[in-house]
Amino acid sequence: MKKLILSIAALALFATTAFAERYVMITHGEGKDPFWPVVQKGGEDAARAIGADFEYIYNPSADMADMASSIQAAAATQPDGMVISLPDPDALGPAIKAAVAAGVPVITMNSGLESSASLGALCTLVSLNYLLDKKLVKEQKLKVLLKHFV
Fold first, then answer.
1. What is the pTM of this model?
2. I need a labelling partner for 145 at 20 to 30 A (CA). Which of 35, 47, 65, 130 fits?
3. What's the Cα-to-Cα distance from 8 to each of 1, 14, 60, rounded to whole Å?
4. pLDDT tens, residue by residue, 55-98
5. Which helix (H) or strand (E) holds 27?
6. 83 membership: H or E segment, kind and range
7. CB 60 within 8 A of CB 118
8. Domains of the chain and CATH, by start
9. Contact present, 144 and 150 (Cβ < 8 Å)
10. Strand 22-27 and strand 124-125: pairing?
11. Exposed, middle or buried, 57 (CB in 10 Å: 0-12/13-18/19+)?
């Protein structure tokens, strides 16, 4: 009876871990930049909150071809979702499109706002400072135009 109970407990433990969702985050930044460890911790905390597994990948070389290879390798493992920074849509776009075509939901973050949708990403997560910077640039351009034409 004791062995039966232990076997059932082991089976229950195995079943819950075998079916845990798994998410992969791939960024172009590395741990030496103070920004990326905060991003990584946010991904880890979110995964822990929903009981999912989480893998964080970055390429220390910051080489876009290496990052594209990391995206392809991670997509081949069929995670439940990927979060990918998109500093170079031309270099990373084919890998992201392939991941989406393979059925992996992709969200881009931190950069690539203008290209994300065309690559098949569900959405792009950017910080408010990016949007504010864009707004300020537009306002500054407007001021320059007004100066010249008014």
1. 0.74
2. 130
3. 11, 10, 44
4. 999 988 889 999 999 999 999 999 999 999 999 999 999 999 99
5. strand 22-27
6. strand 81-85
7. no
8. 20-149 (3.40.50.2300)
9. no
10. unpaired
11. middle
